[in-house]
Amino acid sequence: PPVSSQFGPFVDAKHEQVENCQLLGSFTDIFKLCLKTIIEGTRSAGSHLVFIPSPRDVHHDYVYPQPPFLYPELPKDDRPRVHFMPDPCTLDVD
């Protein structure tokens, strides 16, 4: 049976290291590392991934509705299984 998981925000505005300016990289660099890790880590399972922004993602637009994340580095082979959606959105699964 299909399994779904939810987690995020990716770079949380409420995280202690963000609030205290203790990060070693830019918000965008940390976000891209998170995406890369998740996408590469799920590749062999063939999982479909849906990424929806959170208002607390500090690297993303502070507007509502939120546009989808941009990730031009997404490898071509992963594009059929990785989906970037806006917030809010409606998903029709199967």
Automatic annotation (TrEMBL):
This is DNA polymerase alpha subunit B. The lineage of its organism: Eukaryota, Metazoa, Chordata, Craniata, Vertebrata. Gene3D superfamilies: 3.60.21.60. Belongs to the DNA polymerase alpha subunit B family. One of its GO terms (molecular function) is DNA binding. Residues 7-93 form the DNA polymerase alpha/delta/epsilon subunit B domain. It is found in: Nucleus. Its main location: nucleus. InterPro entries: DNA_pol_a/d/e_bsu (IPR007185), DNA_pol_alpha_bsu (IPR016722). Keywords: DNA replication, Nucleus. It comes from Sula dactylatra (Masked booby). GO terms for biological process: DNA replication initiation. Pfam families: DNA_pol_E_B. GO terms for cellular component: alpha DNA polymerase:primase complex.
